[in-house]
Design brief:
Number of domains: 1
Shape: globular
Structural class: alpha/beta
CATH class: Alpha Beta
Strand order of the largest sheet: 3-2-4-1-5-6
Number of helices: 7
């Protein structure tokens, strides 16, 4: 099975530099254009089904991809709340820079001098955000990874039951990073960009990440 993980298009909060986990804002004109371009690039590619986070920005991206891939009547879009972004608790809707500054202060000592956040193990990042969240509602790594694993299992089981070979999952930046970590990927990459494609194969109950954050389409 071919699995294509797509990050949603750019949103208002992305543009404003605000934390956007379970909070949600619409795609900007640039975000819609990015989804349109990706859809057009997929016009001659097989798409059996599109699964998506139930967040509005992911759904909007999925519908634009379907529309512009010229498969509007043939492809179903199926939402799944387990594919949502991390819930950032009290940081939701605030500025990214404020959360990042608090995160740096809260990280274990061995990570204090790391300049790029993606060099810190993702489970450490998530658990630190959860620990420093004043609302005490942000998900920790155990909660987040369990939710995602359950969502991935649901998607794969559904796809296999229906005989799908080429599926798209429209989700979120941190969530795609978390997914490929769960798949055992340890390669280096800088970020998961809006409307990027991360390609994964699934065979004999094994996930293999083929490439990450592809934007040259």
């Amino acid at each position: 099975m071919n699995i294509y993980l797509v990050r949603h298009g750019k949103t208002i909060f992305n543009t404003q530099g605000k934390v956007q986990g379970w909070s949600d804002t619409p795609l900007t004109s640039k975000g819609r254009a990015g989804a349109k371009t990706l859809g057009e690039a997929l016009a001659n590619e097989p798409i059996d089904h599109i699964y998506t986070s139930d967040s509005g920005r992911a759904r909007e991206t999925a519908h634009l991809i379907r529309l512009h891939s010229r498969n509007d009547q043939q492809i179903d879009i199926q939402g799944n709340k387990a594919l949502r972004e991390l819930y950032f608790g009290g940081f939701e809707g605030g500025y990214n820079i404020a959360m990042l500054e608090a995160l740096k202060k809260g990280l274990p000592d061995q990570y204090k001098d790391i300049h790029m956040l993606w060099d810190v193990p993702l489970d450490i990042v998530v658990d630190t955000i959860s620990a420093i969240d004043s609302s005490q509602q942000a998900e920790n790594w155990e909660q987040y990874s369990k939710r995602l694993q359950e969502g991935i299992n649901e998607v794969v089981q559904d796809a296999q039951a229906q005989g799908f070979n080429n599926i798209y999952i429209v989700s979120h930046g941190l969530t795609i990073r978390a997914m490929i970590r769960l798949f055992g990927y340890s390669g280096s990459y800088d970020d998961i960009e809006n409307c990027s494609v991360t390609y994964v194969t699934y065979e004999n109950k094994q996930f293999l990440v083929q490439h990450v954050n592809e934007v040259k389409y």
